[in-house]
Amino acid sequence: MHVSRREALRQLSALLALPLVRWPARRSDPLAGTIVEYQAGRVRREWSAVEVTQRAIEHCRAWNGTLRAFDRISPTAIAEAKASDARARTGTLRGPLDGVPLFAKAIYDMKGLPTTASNAQWADLFPEILQRDALEVQRMRAAGAIVLGKTAADDFAYHGNGTSSLSGQVRNPHDRAGMKTPGGSSAGSAVSVACGVAFAALGTDDGGSNRIPAQFCGVVGMKPTFGLVPRTGVIPTWPYLDTHGPLARHVADAALLLDAIAGPDRSDGLALVAPWRRGALATLREDALRGARLGLVEANIPRTQMSAESLSVFDRAVADVMSAGAVVELSMPTVTRSTYRNLFTEAAKARGDVAPDSNSPAATANALFRYCQTHGGDARRDVERGLAAFRAFYDVLPKTWAEMSVLIEQPYERDPAGLSFARSRETVLAQLAETFRAQRLDAMIYPTMPFPAVRVVDPWPNVRTTLGLGNWLGIPEVSVPAGIGAGGMPAGNISFVGLPGSDARLLALAHSYERQSRRFVAPPTPVWGPK
């Protein structure tokens, strides 16, 4: 059936709930573009959700021997695509994510699949096919998204190299030699979007697990405001740090996924409670940087330890930001990568409080128990059964079940060390907010990381990064590719960082930078074979 250009534009505008200023370009490969371009192709009847989903699954199967990026493929993906196509024919699509292929990380529960946590021992202990989704996956499906399955990660999302005892080493798709790390722990999620298998994917971030692979794989990675995304149904890490968010090729696609998964839910006792209006992140302007005030925090840029190429790429990104109309001024907040830990401790001492602990054993023990409770079986038995495997990574937990059993039912919302940490967070955030107020800043900018991907077998440079600063403060951060280096590897990302609640503003600034600079470069097609 022929669809006129006028009618196609009307349908696409209604789907995205925003006025279109121009018609998206045609793409030969729908998976290579943005979600808007993909949906435009569906409106023009150039492809269907079934066709594109099948292509995505074929890529997973053809490339995983090389990439080792995929944990499990969902048995219901094609059925979900058929349902979306049926809604498209009747004009009842649920929104911009309806029919869009997406992934979630291996620690997410997903109906129809076991949760392996990318850990061989856990996968053996808990082979059961689950009958419910993690809350974020539920929200993705409610938006009409096609959940392709799960991506591989570091065991229990603990390390930053993309190394799984279950499926092996995830490969960096930019490195044909197979030597460089893709970063982690959300390695497979970053690789899946870099290679154009999915438009976006869910990851988690306690100390950089979204932002590290975003930089090393040259894609967009976001750590939202702490608590904006409830974490129910996901194998836990550190409750007072753990932050879930999107990875994508493009900022606009990351914004659409975040918009679908954000919002309060009582099942997560540390989630924000403010109402969330769906569609709040749907509109991003290309000129958002014009007139924006950005703080260049030199204290967060270890220039003497960065390579000439890394510095050059970041300085060029700053020039791009300024060319787009932003006002960039030096900022010297009291809260930096070098000071924040001491500031937390000093704040607790001034209150006469217990020592703040972001890695409190009691909080993690209770989070693991509550995760097991979502499965409806004997949660105490499941925690006991999985303790040795989990504790091999989260070694702050007690070694024995007798010690662990005392901790698991103490609610993490009332853990003294965790609460002290949260109170110190408020105090230190107030100091950072004063800098924003005094300089009238919209955001800060600095390198996501001060070095590109290293070899998997090598230790990382001994450079203090800003990764922990973001998690301890719970502040939102959007990491955007800043360019490819001489060796064809991603050379660095620029981070747009703000105060809690500024997620929409940061996404707008990051989108504006992305559209002005156009620094994203897709990796080569991963057909060179496993190493």
Please outline the helices and strands:
Layout: H1 5-16, H2 35-43, H3 49-67, E1 70-73, H4 77-89, E2 101-105, H5 120-125, H6 135-142, E3 146-151, E4 163-164, E5 168-169, H7 187-194, E6 200-205, H8 211-217, E7 220-223, E8 243-248, H9 251-261, E9 293-296, H10 308-323, E10 327-330, H11 340-351, H12 361-373, H13 379-391, H14 401-407, H15 416-439, E11 443-447, H16 467-473, E12 477-481, E13 493-497, H17 503-517
Parallel strand pairs: 2-3, 2-6, 9-10, 9-11
Antiparallel strand pairs: 1-3, 4-5, 6-8, 7-8, 7-12, 11-13, 12-13
Helix pairs in contact: 1-2, 3-4, 11-15, 12-13
Structure description:
With 531 residues, this protein is an alpha/beta fold. Among the domains are: 1-47, no CATH class; 48-278 and 288-293 and 441-517, Amidase signature (AS) enzymes. It contains 17 helices and 13 strands. It has an eleven-stranded mixed beta sheet with strand order 1-3-2-6-8-7-12-13-11-9-10, with helices on both faces. Strand 4 (163-164) and strand 5 form a beta hairpin. The longest helix is centred in the C-terminal third of the chain and has 24 residues, at 416-439. The protein starts with a helix and ends in a 14-residue tail after the last helix.
Beta-strand content bin: 5-15%
Structural classification: alpha/beta
Distance between the termini: 47 Å
Largest sheet: 11 strands, mixed
CATH topology descriptor of the domain at 48-278 and 288-293 and 441-517: Amidase signature (AS) enzymes
Overall shape: globular
CATH H level, superfamily name of the domain at 48-278 and 288-293 and 441-517: Amidase signature (AS) domain
The helix content, as a percent range, equals: 25-40%
Q: What's the β-strand tally?
A: 13
Number of helical stretches of at least 4 residues: 17
- Helix and strand sequence: HHHEHEHHEEEHEHEEHEHEHHHHHEHEEH
Average pLDDT for all residues: 95
What is the CATH architecture annotation of the domain at 48-278 and 288-293 and 441-517?
Answer: Alpha-Beta Complex
The stretches of 5 or more residues where confidence is low (pLDDT under 50) are none
Question: What is the alpha-carbon Rg in Å?
Answer: 22 Å
CATH class identity of the domain at 48-278 and 288-293 and 441-517 = Alpha Beta
Strand order, sheet with most strands: 1-3-2-6-8-7-12-13-11-9-10
